[in-house]
Write a structure and sequence with these properties.
By secondary structure, the chain is of the alpha/beta class. Helix content is about 40%, strand content about 15%. It is built from ten helices and 13 strands. It has a seven-stranded parallel β-sheet with strand order 3-2-1-4-5-7-11, with helices on both faces. A two-stranded parallel ribbon has the order 6-13. A two-stranded parallel sheet has the order 8-10. Helix 1 crosses helix 5. The longest helix has 22 residues. It is globular, with a radius of gyration of 19 Å. It starts with a strand and ends with a helix.
Length: about 325
């Protein structure tokens, strides 16, 4: 079976490509011409095609004779111009879906996010929960619009499955781990309300398992599935496990949410007013995620897809920090 992975050079995309190649699939990886291909260098069986989902004509060749499209490409950031988020998460998704329909693709597995729930607060939030609009947040808003758009293509001509992964971590995670680990080591990290709230992590191998199941299961078309690690983990536990593996002291600072949220609003709005290209360390998206329990149920994925996360969060963090230490040591040696 020939498959296409958009955003193949990224954290999730490259790991998925590795899994597909190892199991004998003929895989095509769509990457932009400016993409760093470091994580694809050990995948000689991968066919790399240069293209950009925001430019429809550039992705048509990549979908020739493809049966499954994994729509992984996205703008992985909680800060940036609305125009950029919308061009990738809405217009880019439209281009992928239209091209898949035109090329006779059988199924598209679309990567959404639990962020579309809007961080409403709760435990075991399932797929029937309403999506809380966050009109001030470009990531949440455009990911929600992109998901709704993708599902609108579900038909007898094109099958669509939506996955809502939680916060993805693991080896090669340059988005979160590469930013968070040095902050912990330098003791610049602070909790909200002591880090007592439940979070929602998903280890990369667990996510890839769910992605593969979504592409193969007959019950999946037209459905939406949360994807999270098993168990319940607080922010404090997650951070302390990271610190243990980093061999550094745990954070000492904690701010009550009645201070954290107004502070985030002021800093966020000020940075936007000044048209700052970089996010302030504290912004509304980040505080929303940590100021309440935000835990999600995976019972539907387990029941219908056979999802069974094999890596615990504790083991996942160990593997992630092992990679991080080797990665940073290698970069130090190069300089």
């Amino acid at each position: 079976m020939k498959v296409l992975v958009t955003g193949a050079n990224g954290f999730v995309g490259s790991t998925l490509c590795g899994s597909l190649i190892k199991t004998g699939h003929s895989a095509v990886g769509l990457v932009r011409s400016s993409s760093d291909l470091t994580f694809l260098k050990d995948l000689p069986g991968l066919q790399i095609v240069k293209g950009d989902i925001t430019q429809k004509e550039s992705i048509e060749a990549a979908m020739k004779d493809v049966s499954i499209v994994y729509q992984v490409a996205g703008y992985a950031s909680d800060w940036g111009p609305w125009k950029t988020f919308r061009s990738v998460h809405v217009e880019g998704v439209r281009n992928v879906m239209d091209t898949a329909l035109q090329c006779g693709v059988q199924r598209v597995v679309y990567m959404s996010s639990v962020s579309v729930y809007g961080f409403p607060g709760g435990v075991a939030i399932d797929e029937t929960a309403p999506l809380v609009p966050r009109s001030d947040d470009p990531y949440i808003t455009t990911k929600t619009e992109g998901e709704e758009l993708a599902l609108s293509y579900q038909s007898g001509k094109l099958e669509v499955v939506v996955l809502r992964p939680a916060g993805v971590y693991g080896p090669n995670d340059r988005t979160t781990t590469l930013q968070l680990a040095p902050v912990l080591v330098s003791r610049q990290f602070g909790y909200v309300d002591g880090g007592k709230y439940l979070m929602a992590p998903v280890y990369i191998d667990n996510l890839v398992q769910a992605i593969r199941l979504a592409a193969e299961n007959d019950r999946a078309p037209g459905q939406v599935y949360n994807v999270v690690d098993d168990g319940k983990v607080t922010w404090r536990e997650y951070v302390e496990w990271m610190c243990e593996d980093l061999n550094c002291k745990t954070p000492w600072l904690s701010v009550p949410k009645w201070i954290a949220w107004p502070l985030a609003v002021v800093l966020d709005n000020t940075a936007k007013l000044l048209k700052k290209r970089e996010s302030p360390m504290i912004n509304k998206y980040r505080v929303r995620a940590v100021m309440n329990d935000n835990h999600y149920s995976t019972e539907k994925a387990k029941r219908e897809l056979g999802y069974s996360p094999e890596i615990s969060t504790r083991e996942g963090i160990k593997r992630t920090i092992d990679w991080y230490l080797k990665y940073t040591d290698s970069n130090i040696q190069k300089t």
